[in-house]
User: Which sequence fits this backbone?
């Protein structure tokens, strides 16, 4: 029982034509459900295992999922297509991840060998997510405080990719930067807070888990660097003011239970709360601004999506491409290719180099102290897979190539200048209103 690729394409095209509500009854009245299922990756053997009723449920959800999954647009395939899109687009959405800060020495999470998760594994922590788990933090914040120094930003710098996002803003093209990063370097790069959604919060501020007192993030940086738990100064002051110093039977040990004011069984001494950077831990809600801005503004108006330096594994950010209108072009820029989301073009390499090359091709000047003079990169086709996206490897800096390119541009400019002079001097026939033909 098999459909050929042409039949599959026809069935899928019909789904996009009429939508799942009409498609399901129409198809099921015309065709064996097991056969329809094969067009959406459903194994016919599931019916024998789970029964026909259950198989129909699987089929409907596979169809709906397929309908909402973003499909590649056939008209965008090359790096020059992307450069052209940059020039033409007016409302660009940029979705960023840890990869845009690795060139500054801040490790990402999931890169093999260099990522923070590998470092944790090497330190014997086999569930790296637990370091950022809110329940775990409330139980024992020392785990986080012992390790977080490894991803603490140097707030005085930003990368060329941050500068690229700023350039988009300066050109009036940046609609919104959805950053999953917590390093707050977008602020340093001058991204307008009204155009920035810090999906997972940031190190910019920190709050007490008990009294909610908020301070600048930098106030707890020394504790993170010293690998010591930061205790709320407001709670501490309030406790000191409320109670006369008590005679302790034994040395007071901080009790990390944040829910109760008086929870030490041993000495009954109330304790101050623990400071937590305002980054979103696993188990915490994303800010409302994320959902509001996405649904109310961006889904209606973006005309280009650039996803840079993220493995796109963390929901709900990972779902944005499937949520946005499917006609909006999507470009992926990262070191590794991506399989679970359909992009139109994937540009693979160091993102700082990729964005520099895109700017060059768009005729824009991306300036940053980390981009050396005469910089240039080689772009090679990586892979062409019909219907799955076009991938280009951007890398292998070639200074000579860049110098040659620059010389060519200079030659061209000189020629244009000469031509212009001729026009001014009236030497070119059509400059005097004569027809060239
Ligand atoms: P991730 O899952 O670690 O993925 C990073 C991606 O970037 C990978 O696909 C890498 O191949 C790619 N990458 C790394 N360096 C470069 C580079 N120089 N050029 C191009 N691509 C590169 O991280 P995500 O951002 O996808 O995951 C989201 C997590 C990571 C969020 O919750 C963040 O808070 C968290 N995080 C943030 C930071 C930061 O703020 N700088 C650092 C580490 C982790």
Assistant:
């Amino acid at each position: 029982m098999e459909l050929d690729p042409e039949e599959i394409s026809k069935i899928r095209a019909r789904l996009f034509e009429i939508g799942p509500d009409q498609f399901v009854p129409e198809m099921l009245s015309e065709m064996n459900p097991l056969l329809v299922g094969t067009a959406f990756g459903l194994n016919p053997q599931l019916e024998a295992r789970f029964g026909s009723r259950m198989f129909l449920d699987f089929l409907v959800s596979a169809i709906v999922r397929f309908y909402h999954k973003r499909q590649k647009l056939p008209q965008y395939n090359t790096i020059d297509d992307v450069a052209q899109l940059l020039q033409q687009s007016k409302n660009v959405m940029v979705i960023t991840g840890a990869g845009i800060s690795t060139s500054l020495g801040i490790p990402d999470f999931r890169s093999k060998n260099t990522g923070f998760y590998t470092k944790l594994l090497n330190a014997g922590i086999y569930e790296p997510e637990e370091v950022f788990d809110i329940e775990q933090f409330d139980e024992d914040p020392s785990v986080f405080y012992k390790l977080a120094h490894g991803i603490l930003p140097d707030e005085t710098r930003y990368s060329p990719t941050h500068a690229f996002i700023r350039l988009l803003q300066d050109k009036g093209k940046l609609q919104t930067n959805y950053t999953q990063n917590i390093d707050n370097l977008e602020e340093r790069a001058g991204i307008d807070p009204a155009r920035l959604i810090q999906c997972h919060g940031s190190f910019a501020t920190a709050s007490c888990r008990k009294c909610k007192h908020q301070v600048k993030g930098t106030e707890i940086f020394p504790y993170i660097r010293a690998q010591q738990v930061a205790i709320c100064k407001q709670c501490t002051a309030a406790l000191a003011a409320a109670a006369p110093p008590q005679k302790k039977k034994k040395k007071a040990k901080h009790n990390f239970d944040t829910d109760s004011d008086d929870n030490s069984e041993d000495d009954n001494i109330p304790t101050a709360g623990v400071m937590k950077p305002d980054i979103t831990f696993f188990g915490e809600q994303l800010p409302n601004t994320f959902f509001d801005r996405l649904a109310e503004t961006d889904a209606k108006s973006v005309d280009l999506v650039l996803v840079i330096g993220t493995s796109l594994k963390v929901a709900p950010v990972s779902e944005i491409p499937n949520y946005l209108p499917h006609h909006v072009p999507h470009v992926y820029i990262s070191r590794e290719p991506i399989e679970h989301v359909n992009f139109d073009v994937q540009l693979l390499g160091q993102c700082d180099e990729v964005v520099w090359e895109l700017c060059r091709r768009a005729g824009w000047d991306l300036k940053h102290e980390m981009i050396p003079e005469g910089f240039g990169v080689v772009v090679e086709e990586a892979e062409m897979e019909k219907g799955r996206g076009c991938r280009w490897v951007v890398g292998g800096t070639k200074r000579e190539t860049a110098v040659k390119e620059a010389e060519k541009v200079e030659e061209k400019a000189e020629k244009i200048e000469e031509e212009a002079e001729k026009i001014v001097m009236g030497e070119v026939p059509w400059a005097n209103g004569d027809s060239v033909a």
